[in-house]
Amino acid sequence: MAEQEPIARAEQELEHHAHAGRYALVWIALLVLTVTTYLAARAPLPGGWHVAVALVIATAKGSLVVLFFMHLWDQRGANRLVFATSLVFVALLVGLTLLDNATRFPLANPPGSAGALPAGGANREPAPEAPR
Amino acid sequence: MSPSSAPVSEVPAYNPRNYLNSPATGLRSWLTTRDHKRIGVMFLVATTFFFAVGGLFAMLIRIELLTPGPTIVDAMTYNRLFTLHGVVMIFLFMIPAIPSGFGNFLLPIMLGARDVAFPRLNLLSFYVYLLGATIALWGMIHGGADTGWTFYTPYSTQTVTKVVPILLGAFILGFSSILTGLNFIVTTHTLRAPGMTWTRMPLFIWSIYATSVIQILATPVLGMTLLLVAIENAFGWGIFDPARGGDPVLFQHFFWFYSHPAVYIMVLPAMAVISEVVCTFSHKNIFGYNAVAYSSLGIAFVGFFTWGHHLFTSGQSAFDAGIFGVLSMFVGIFTAIKVFNWTATLYKGSISFKTPFAYFVGFLFFLVFGGMTGIALATVSLDVHWQDTYFVVAHFHFIMVGATIMAFLAALHYWFPKITGRTYPEGWGLVGATLVILGFNFTFIPQFLLGNEGMPRRYYAYPERFWPLNVASTAGASVLAFGLVLILVYLLVSLRSGPVAGPNPWHSRGFEWFVPSPPPPENWEVTPVITHPPHDYHHAGEAPPGGVEPEPRHAS
């Protein structure tokens, strides 16, 4: 119990030594990424790439916040392991869910989404006429 | 070996200065306490109350299903009843009962600590629980919800019943769960007594630790999902409703990403209790400590890879279903490791067939039977037949509810002398255990058969050919309810007039039994130094680990 105090104090000192310049740079990077998200949403990308790009940018922004504003960059050991584990589980949730959409029976996908049939099932062959 | 046997030496049997009367006894001192033991007891009282409420809903459901047509309630009320039964039992009873109740009481004592790492956060966790429960109850009283506890979209985003307060209640309850989990993880990392290495920790702690990891990692996903449903319900956004461009299967992915690991939030603490009970009542060290400890983490990890088996017939791709089917089977491996090690612990043990041990036997039966039907359900082709039938209802009641209730009752009886300083009547204890175990089987074995014959779950009316098995199930539920009421009565009587237990009535070598009963506010008079693993019955003649006296030194 007692040995926790020096560790906590050392961490505090590290936080005090963080430069204000670093925070400013991270803030600018977050602004740039926000603008990039907006522009990427309007760019003519194929298929489901809009979502992929938005997710990559959001992950980058989240990482910047966690690493610098929440000081994970200055931490070691178990805290980094916890962060890495969280990323694995986020990847798991997003990955297997998107895999479902990508390999699903097309009619089970919402209309307009990447894995869905075009509206009205345009590719469907017309039903053959019944013989008279 | 009787729980009422008097302790030796000058140590008083009933510790005069204990957490129940010190530092004060008034209501205010309880409501503002930061003592983990008092918070644990308050959680136990609250969760037991909600267990009774959920049980009442269950009995109403079973009485309604006593006849094929309408019996006592209309169809809408029936839908509300099974929804509220699920919500109350899962969010208000099973998730918090063992970790927040017994975990809070025992974890710091077992670690040799004075309290949890964040005592104020611990009390906040209790009040957040009460707030969530109050909001959910308000929703139940003012209309209730009829969606089932799973809140499946698109129905839950369209229903006119009061689903939003109940969603909000469950959302808030999630924060209580996260706070408790966070507290336990930090406490385990930072407040272990000198000499308590990770492999000297009681197995109870390992399982509670694994539970806490799931609580922290999975609960935020539930919060996010319930919030999205509430938003869609209130504002009509198209997230999950296909009519508005949403994807209802996406909801099921999100929901089960939490709710399947949540099964392990309920079962891992049950396994935590059982690992302690089996050692004490076999008077033997656990067989394969490392295997049991690491399999807890294994279950917690693999539990995150299996959620898709709830979606086999919901429109999920066949490719994804195949992957999830295989991954689901892995849970069986880690569970089997535990089961084999528990049974190996019994071998050549000196078994004392007391009430907690009776519940251990019931637990093994429900876990293995429920687990094997789970393996069957994880087989995609078989699941197509059983999906959404009573077979699934019976399966999850066996594995999740049966196992958890067995462990909850085992814990209640096993630690009753430690928590209250008094004992319960052993004879009535065994009668209660017999009634509960038999009643549970008579309730759910007919439901396995009903499901296999094709009776869908959640239906208000059914064809007459399902009638006899439904009558059998309701009869079983009545026996179960009677057994539970009996247990409640003799435990309440024992609280006041039970014989004084003494510090270690079971002659256990678990660390918590080396503090007085009831424990003093500071748990340990001096911080113990741990030199042996827990339950070291090989050294039963010697002083317990770390020079802690065989009989506790009381603080008076």
Describe the structure.
The complex is a heterodimer of chains A (132) and B (556). Chain A has one domain. Chain A is 64% helix and 0% strand. Chain A contains 4 helices and no strands. Chain A has helices at 4-17, 20-42, 49-69, 78-103. With 556 residues, chain B is mostly helical. Chain B has 14 helices and no strands. Chain B has helices spanning 27-31, 36-64, 75-111, 119-141, 163-190, 203-235, 248-282, 289-302, 318-346, 355-377, 380-386, 390-420, 426-452, 467-497. Chain B is globular and about 70 Å long. Chains A and B meet through helix 4 of A and helix 7 and helix 9 of B.
Write the layout of secondary structure elements.
The complex is a heterodimer of chains A (132) and B (556).
Chain A: H1 4-17, H2 20-42, H3 49-69, H4 78-103
Helix pairs in contact in A: 2-3
Chain B: H1 27-31, H2 36-64, H3 75-111, H4 119-141, H5 163-190, H6 203-235, H7 248-282, H8 289-302, H9 318-346, H10 355-377, H11 380-386, H12 390-420, H13 426-452, H14 467-497
CATH class of chain B: Mainly Alpha
Helical stretch count of chain A?
4
CATH topology of chain B: Cytochrome C Oxidase, Chain A
Which oligomeric form is depicted? Answer: heterodimer
Helix count, DSSP H or I runs of 4 or more residues of chain B: 14
* CATH superfamily grouping of chain B: Cytochrome c oxidase-like, subunit I domain
Order of helices and strands of chain A: HHHH
How would you sum up the major sheet of chain A?
none
| Largest interface chains and counts | A-B, 23 and 27 residues
Q: How many structural domains does the protein architecture of chain B include? A: 1
pLDDT < 50 runs, ≥5 residues of chain A: 1-7, 120-127
- Backbone structural class of chain A: mainly alpha
Mean pLDDT of chain B: 91
